[in-house]
Amino acid sequence: MLQMKTNTQVLRNSLTLTHRNLLKTLHNPDNVSDVLVQPIIFTLLFGYLFGGVIAGSVHAYLPMLVSGILVQSILNAASGSGQQLREDINQGIFDRFKTLPIAPIAPLAGQLVGDSLRLLLSGGMAMVTAALMGWRPTVNFGALMMALFLAVFIGWSTSWIFALVGLLVKNAELISSLSMIIILVLTFLSNAFIPVKTLPHFLQTIVRINPVTTTITAIRGILNTGHWSETATMVVVSGAVIILVFMPLTVMAYQRHD
Fold this sequence. Notes:
Blueprint: H1 2-26, H2 29-55, H3 58-78, H4 80-90, H5 93-98, H6 106-132, H7 141-168, H8 172-188, H9 201-209, H10 211-225, H11 230-257
Helix pairs in contact: 1-6, 2-3, 2-6, 3-6, 3-7, 3-8, 3-10, 4-6, 4-7, 4-8, 6-7, 7-10, 7-11, 10-11
């Protein structure tokens, strides 16, 4: 009975702090930009600037672009985990949480649960923007949700890495800059925006071993065929491995800081 009461308290405290983190996102222009504005800007920018050059028209380019923008947007949103954690620590917010009668793990849990909702919103915004530009998926709604949730899952698993970085690196601006550079390199050195066969051979090798390429290939396959693939299963397994490795490391770093 006591264990059930404790679990209920942890859940209630975590959901309360999830609500707090979502409100913080909405009231912070930088966070709103990562979650809502960037998917719109990049979809419009790449679609209208490069659609004609790469695919002959914007409409023909959108099926390729959607999966790339979806993954890029979700990774951008996931990178905010580390920055937000570090900002709360540097501003003394976590020290104030320690004085409250809440579960000790609740602040970290609230951040990561809130991340999953932010990722879902960011991915949905990318899809809606593409639809307004003329993208008409050939698969059913279930396949669209399958692709979206696969992207959100891999983004959420990656957010554990960024959360660990946020707990270890003391400068929030440095975390933001490094995250942006890493994400830009990984997405541009992938099949997100261009056909891999157009690249020089040495770059093709780099692109094919890039995990972002594998993720985009899995999502693109679902959006094109409506079916789950072995590549999609590989992405899920990879995400699960990331969680199994980085979740305990993040919790340990958080408890040590606590």
